[in-house]
Amino acid sequence: MAMTDLLSADDIKKAVGAFSAAESFNHKKFFELVGLKKKSKDEVQKVFHILDKDKSGFIEEDELKFVLKGFIEDGRDLSDKETKTLLAAGDKDGDGKIGVE
After folding, report:
1. How many domains does the chain have?
2. Closest alpha carbon to 79 in 33, 31, 29, 26
3. Residue 58 in marked binding region
4. Residue 18, domain member (yes or no)
5. What CATH number should be reported for the domain holding residue 24?
6. Residue 42 annotated as part of some ligand binding site
7. pLDDT per position as a tens digit, 16-38
8. Taking all residues of the chain, what is their mean pLDDT, rounded to a whole number?
9. Beta carbons of 10 and 34 less than 8 angstroms apart
10. Has residue 41 been placed in a domain?
């Protein structure tokens, strides 16, 4: 399954483009722009599984660094600071990774 099977290619391009500058990534705004806020829980879980590159059932810090590339091939890498901020926002149990729930 491709990301564009779940989200609009135009929305993906606009969302990734909005955060093309280093240190500009805002996960809440990104997920809104890309259209995830309007998706069902099942659809969001499908996006999660696409981003879970190693299919471990979790998105770890090393996968988060490349999260924009999970949406569009030419997306930029997140900085270490952006990656840690995103991890902290999604890691609800403090285990250093984000689970599908």
Report:
1. 1
2. 26
3. yes
4. yes
5. 1.10.238.10
6. no
7. 999 999 999 999 999 999 999 99
8. 96
9. no
10. yes
Counted residue by residue, the chain has a size of: 101
Q: Rounded to two decimals, what is the model's pTM?
A: 0.91
Inside any domain, residue 52:
yes
Q: State residue 21's pLDDT score.
A: 94
* Three-state DSSP class for residue 56: coil
Range of the domain at 68: 3-90
Determine if residue 93 is labeled as part of a ligand binding site: yes
Residue 16 maps to a domain: yes
Note the pLDDT of residue 73: 93
Q: Is the pLDDT of residue 101 over 90?
A: no
97 has binding-site annotation: yes
The number of beta carbons lying within 10 Å of the beta carbon of residue 101 is 8
Instruction: Determine whether the annotation assigns residue 74 to a binding site.
Output: no
**CA dihedral (60, 3, 78, 101) positive or negative:** negative
